[in-house]
Amino acid sequence: MSTALDLSQEQWSSYKGAKLPAIQSDHERWQRGWQVAYFLAHLLREQFGATQVAVFGSLSNREDFDIYSDLDLIVWGIHPTRFYQAVAAVTAVSNEFEVDLVDGDTPPLHLSKSLSGALAI
Length: 121
What we know:
alpha+beta, 4 strands, flat, 121 residues, Beta Polymerase, domain 2, four-stranded mixed β-sheet
């Protein structure tokens, strides 16, 4: 089974991102965040067998998103022995965003409020 590290140079470069512009608006960054999130959801389904992927946190609420926001994803259906491989894969994809991946099959209690607003992708 392949991982993000097995992407072609063309696939990798489209998501790894070029140099960030000196000034990027919050809206542009939010749009780019959604592009990366959809790519990550596809990667998680295809390479790790995820059955469901959702975003939560600032990406799911435009008013909360700013230049410092990261991408918060929750995923279901990845076998526990492969979860940290999935974490490594999604965190290696983009140099524009930090990515946090939460196992939806065993979510931490302290995130229950944040996860209630998750948007399936």
